[in-house]
Amino acid sequence: MKLSQLVAALPSLDAPPHSDPDITRITTDSRQVIPGALFVAYPGVAVDGHRFIADAIDRGAAGIIGERDLTAENAKSAELSKEISAAAALSAVNIPYLKVRDGREAFAWLNAAWYSFPARRLIMIGVTGTDGKTTTSNLIHSILTAAGIKAGLISTVNAVIGDRVLDTGLHTTTPDANEVQHYLAEMVEAGMTHCVLEATSHGLAQHRVTGCEFDLAVVTNITHEHLDVHGSLEAYHAAKGMLFTSLATAVNKGLRKAAILNNDDSSNVYLREWIETAANCGVNCPEIVTYGIRESAHWNAFNIDYRADAIHFTAIGAGRSIEVATPLVGEYNVSNCLAAIAATVAGLAVDPAAARSGIAALAGIPGRMERIDEGQPFTAIVDFAHTPNALDRSIAAARTMTDGQVIVVFGCAGLRDREKRTLMGDVAGRAADKIIVTAEDPRTESLDEIMAATAQALIAQGRVEGVDFWRVPDRGAALALACSLAKAGDVVMACGKGHEQSMCFGEIEYPWDDREAMRAALRGGPLKTLPTAQKD
Prior knowledge:
By secondary structure, the chain is of the alpha/beta class. It is 36% helix and 20% strand. It folds into three domains: 3-109, Udp-n-acetylmuramoylalanyl-d-glutamate--2,6- Diaminopimelate Ligase, Chain: A, domain 1 (3-Layer(aba) Sandwich); 117-361, Mur-like, catalytic domain (UDP-N-acetylmuramoyl-L-alanine:D-glutamate ligase), CATH 3.40.1190; 370-535, Protein-Tyrosine Phosphatase, Chain A, CATH 3.90.190. An eleven-stranded mixed beta sheet has the order 8-7-6-9-5-10-11-12-13-14-15, sandwiched between helices. A hairpin with a 3-residue loop joins strand 6 (151-154) and strand 7 (158-161). Helix 6 (133-146) crosses helix 13 (352-361) and helix 17 (475-485) crosses helix 18.
């Protein structure tokens, strides 16, 4: 593909290229450059991609995209030796260097163009929020499938394209922009007409879902999370709001765009204002459809009945009544079901009968309130709850399953939002009967110090270490202790890791699966795949 064809997609470009080479690959990693590649440079979390421009040129790059003014004079004034090398290399080979306002944004649009803008040939449903994104995305996908609609799914667990299920990575986040666009192109090739895409705040802020041209946007809730990355709750709100900006500004495919908001969550007021500002209240202003359990909304749940086999409730909205039964547990999943109904029945005119059958068909999601059964006399659950709100809701869901104890095992990640360590301790101290604080991706931080912050919060809640809470650095041993404390009818929960397949100590990702660890604990032998856990 010609460089001119690709850069035509860019929303910002200082000047057109002085030549028009054929491009063989688009990459942000200079080590992946092949002759004819287009190298995109931007400042990363740990390193600045501009430092590798000279390397990319040495490997045969045909063009460079970047954010810096890379004249030799500017590079020298900044005293950046790598940029001096980049400027000299560019001058020597005379290949085009194109300056953009945001390299990540450019990378996303370049990949959208590379794959011929696949999102423009799909009805795109984006789902965002702090908690419940994956479940709501899967519910919407299940409803669309029940309605006979050929829909793909990209979640933080996997990508589903027809009969193919593809893993999207070790840790939970939106795939990179090139992967997202590749998945969308595969969906178009496979005859899909719709795509449900889980959009994390990282995915939005880092432009991984830029170029996805959304038609519907769904929000579950916005609570305390990722403030280490976004800096403030306002900035976190703004990252989520980017989904609705995309909704209002993307190509119109002949479908009335809709924003699905949670009236039970305080974010709905902020997001209404964001939507109106993004759309300037013009002809492309999305229709707002609300849902709620406690607050009046377009779609509400009535007669909620928590039974052993399923939650039964009546969803009422738009003059329609849908009798719903979901095998998912907890009040929050009633809210997730309502979000999925609002998106499909109201937003996409899906038959209510398909909504009912699609919800009933979704038995569970890996690592989301997933039951682990080894014949034990108590209930064992693995859940992804890794935020204060999610932990609170998961423990509340466990309360509906037992009259006995709720024993919870959790940790807090290193190099992430430090305030969460206290907030998670506050929640567990108020809501659980017994608590084991353990490792959860401590990375290069001291695990002892991470656990100490949570322990202090538990003590402030009146908990006594060694009586109703414990610190156990090794996560496998922590789960074994929790199971040893359980009596018949109790609930033991491993929270924070869910379906993830690794845990990071230092800079090494060790194999880890909470579900396998829970099974080992239930069988009486803790899983031991974290060799450094005992050293912290």
